[in-house]
Amino acid sequence: MKKPNNLKKIILVDDDKDIRFTLENLLIDYGYTVVSVENGKEALKKLKNNKFDLIISDILMPVMDGYQLLKNLKDNNKLKNIPFVFFTGTYTDKKDKELAIKLGADKYIEKPLEFEIFIKTIQGIIEDNKSGKLKPKKPALEQEEVILKLYSGQLVHKLEKKLKDLETEIIQRKKAEKALQESEERYKNIIENSQLGMLIIKDKPIRISFVNTPMEKLSGYTSDEIMHFTPDKIISTIHPEDRKALFKNFKARIKGEIFSTNHKFRLIIKDNDIRWIEMFSTLITYKGSQAIQSTFLDYTEKTQIEALMIKTSRMEATTTLATGIAHDYNNLMVGVLGNAELLKMQFTKNLKIANKLNTIANNAKKAGELSQQLIAFARGGKYNPQILNLNNIIKDTLHLNEQSFPTKVHIKKKFDPELSNIEADLSQMNYVIMNLCKNSIEAINKKGQILLSTNNVEINNELASSKTELEVGQYVCFTIEDTGCGIDKEILTKIFEPFFSTKLKGRGLGLAAIFGIIENHNGYISVDSKNGSGTTFKIFLPAIESSEPEIQVEQKSENKIPIGNETILIIDDEPDILDVVQSILEDFGYHILIANNGKEALDIADKFDGDIHLVILDMFMPVLDGTETFHLLKKAIPNLKTIICSGFELDSKAQSLLNSGANSFIQKPFTLEKLVREVRRILDV
Length: 685
Hints:
This protein is of the alpha/beta class. 47% of the residues lie in helices and 21% in strands. The strands form four sheets. Strands 11, 12, 13, 14, 15, 16 and 17 form a seven-stranded mixed sheet that branches. The protein has a five-stranded parallel sheet with strand order 2-1-3-4-5, sandwiched between helices. Strands 7-6-10-9-8 form a five-stranded antiparallel sheet, sandwiched between helices. α2 (40-49) runs parallel beside α3 (66-74) and α4 packs across α6.
């Protein structure tokens, strides 16, 4: 059943306090504001100074009964239009109802009645009155003596019945008291064994009168400690940002005003940790006076999971954005770098122009390196995975950069001589080590130390469960620990987010890129820090069984770039790339065919009268993408040689084409020399 949208005020008139208590709490639970009194005279006093939307009254009551109350209301011009409902278990025969209707009652409900039907009836009367469907009932125009006679007869009859009922009640009371005691014991067991914390708070003075066991577990305090909380101590357990709203609501409840039955806030528990709480409150009578019964649901873990999901979604969205930017950026740099190198070939004798073109080409290369950072963050792809020893990488990185470190920083090393090897991209590992060193240096204000250490680690089931990204197995652990200023708790949760920085807004790809690199090497990175106590980063990378690391041999370029005369088909949807690649290869003697997409390429291959010796194929195009185009061309020309070209790194799609017969992969942006040498190498195979 839906609760009312707009809170309504009801006066409840009944001399039975148990019935008042039950109905009052039922109506409050459905969102109504309730004032209860024990007879008609008290009701008239309340009605005189307060506005009510409905009156619910018993009939048989001391001082002034329900019939007398109804007659007084109908004689009062200010009160006669308030809807009036009789709710009685004593006056239940036909003449009782007849008298009620004659006096002007709107509804006559007999006890007992199911709570849902009772609430539905109450809601209907209030809604009908609001919409104008409920017309005020006028008392029957009969002689006062006739009504009085009917009233007196019924009253005597009911009083006689009441006396008999009282005699029976005395007999049943002892049984009821025993049943109540058993019920209270059951209720106490339910409260104590509940998963929800519970308090009962009284307001004069404000003090906690009841605490259940789950509340002790939630707060960290014993029930005795909680029940001795002063008002100031109660306030101190609520997060400062949540106090104003919470206590405004508390005061409204105590006064019987309109209030919200639930409230979310942060609870500061005994160890100063913060728990997210949803509190449900009800106004009750406890040991003879008004009090608030509050239950507490701890949903901290749910909040943490939701925050993690939001963070993950944000990272995924930014990953998609960064990947797309890097791809388009690399395509643009092909045009810039290619045209700069073509012009440089024409101005070899003009040193001034050649130098400027060199500057353009170098900046285009750096821009390409920046896009690699974006891809490293977005995908962390291993461009050139090889067997490496992390000790050697750290030593080489420090050897090249340590002289530029400020003298205030002392670098200390502690390497495991038996360190296992890893399979990783050398340049990306250099990037990770160098960026973490820079972060540590910046964190040291005066003098300090940076400790770089390595060791072998076995991740068992227990450790794997605490580091959910890792599987059970052998790992190489790299630790960088500084004595710097440390990181605030709030900042600590954001440092791996893209573009987050404590320096300048809009900067800060470093740690996000590191996160992407480590994650895509099937590793894990953690950070531990406290403000003023330094920071420790730990990186775990899967160890491999190979005993000897691979050694990278830098290939020296030949002095003369080779030329050719074969026919090459270039397939790319970017006009600038087609133009610059065509110009480069034509300058080196090749005959060039161009296609804007896979469909055009297939048409050219079908109609061209001659041999196509090589295809340079972009991976991402409209109409037909690189994968579809490659397989269709291979079917048409089985011996066709292919160079795959992409603004992305060598991913699974490109690798699949290499496995299917493609000859090479070249990533944008590329230099003129790299392209021409690779073309010649593939043609000569």
